[in-house]
Amino acid sequence: MTLNLTAEHKMLLALATKAQKNAHAPYSNFHVGAAILDENAQHHACCNVENAAYPLGQCAEAGAISAMIAAGSKQIKQILIVSPNNNFCPPCGGCRQKIAEFANAETEVHMATKSGDIKTVKFTELLPLAFGFDKKD
Ligand code: THU
């Protein structure tokens, strides 16, 4: 799977891996990185940020989405999540709903392992029938 990485995959993987190194995850010791390509061809990355009050911890995807919004963009074209091990790290249920807010039918979700294998799915495969006020079907 590592053989067919596009330049965009490589860019997202590099940015997510860089952010992952700064993860604050002293409770789970599970360091995650996420990077987004938005509709303006800008990139945004973040890591998970845990808290001693466990439920206050934030996933890497949520931080990357916040960075995208702060930069003035609104659409997730692609999002890559890099795992700390050689299993893929699919976005948690809460993050799927957070991604849904800024995704469309073309949005791609890439999951990367520590060794650089990448699996890609359409976002709609991860959260079919997503809740949203503007959904007609
Ligand atoms: N985590 C993420 O950052 N993204 C995911 O998609 C799954 C889980 C974080 C949350 C927590 O800090 C740690 O991984 C263990 O669940």
TrEMBL record:
Its EC number is 3.5.4.5. InterPro entries: APOBEC/CMP_deaminase_Zn-bd (IPR016192), CMP_dCMP_dom (IPR002125), Cyt/Deoxycyt_deaminase (IPR050202), Cyt_deam_tetra (IPR006262), Cytidine_deaminase-like (IPR016193). Its cofactor is Zn(2+). Pfam families: dCMP_cyt_deam_1 (PF00383). Zn(2+) binds at C59, C92, C95. It is an enzyme of class 3 (hydrolase). Keywords: Hydrolase, Metal-binding, Zinc. It comes from the Bacteria. GO terms for biological process: nucleobase-containing small molecule metabolic process; pyrimidine-containing compound metabolic process. It catalyses: cytidine + H2O + H(+) = uridine + NH4(+); 2'-deoxycytidine + H2O + H(+) = 2'-deoxyuridine + NH4(+). Substrate binds at N48, V49, E50, N51, A52, A53, Y54. The active site is at E61. Gene3D superfamilies: Cytidine Deaminase, domain 2. One of its GO terms (molecular function) is zinc ion binding. GO terms for cellular component: cytosol. Residues 7-134 form the CMP/dCMP-type deaminase domain. PANTHER family: CYTIDINE DEAMINASE. NCBIfam families: cyt_deam_tetra (TIGR01354), PRK05578.1 (NF004064). Belongs to the cytidine and deoxycytidylate deaminase family. This enzyme scavenges exogenous and endogenous cytidine and 2'-deoxycytidine for UMP synthesis. This is Cytidine deaminase. The gene is cdd.
